[in-house]
# Entry
Amino acid sequence: ETGVTQSPTHLIKTRGQQVTLRCSSQSGHNTVSWYQQALGQGPQFIFQYYREEENGRGNFPPRFSGLQFPNYSSELNVNALELDDSALYLCASSWGGPPESTDTQYFGPGTRLTVL
Amino acid sequence: GNSVTQMEGPVTLSEEAFLTINCTYTATGYPSLFWYVQYPGEGLQLLLKATKADDKGSNKGFEATYRKETTSFHLEKGSVQVSDSAVYFCALGGNRLAFGKGNQVVVIP
# Structure
């Protein structure tokens, strides 16, 4: 039990729609990272937030955006959904901050997004 | 950039057998190395980590040693159980983790 929770567990959307996924970090963790895990693949880094500011982004288009709130919750928003966005979306929280914290990231159970 | 390569294909073995999963990496600097485990339908759980060369991470009978000279972080367990059946991911990084593709391990009674 990591103390990181995500909602919803599963979600089905159609192409072109928008979706918001939510994460509640472990209390006291200032950093939240989001990852996309396609079926049969390892997770891919989307972006990270540290104290409500974006702190690094992976190779994902701008239609993937995020927010982090002072109460240790955060959101991942995806606009104009495409079929390839179907994946498990994981958030992970950790203590540390930029530039290259080695603090362990603790993962939530994920949200399974299906785009039809 | 940072990248991780895991051996290809699933691993099937009998209970009490010895398990090895190979992991090699390419990195700038000296990142931390991790093994995460994912049970069916669940998120990732940290299994063990090592933060510098020659460190050995260990947990639940699993071990891995951070080898700078061979850029490797192979996972080993001396005697697996059915409950060890899962997908295992090697990862490296600091604030952004780079993962391998994962290896499914199936332990047969």
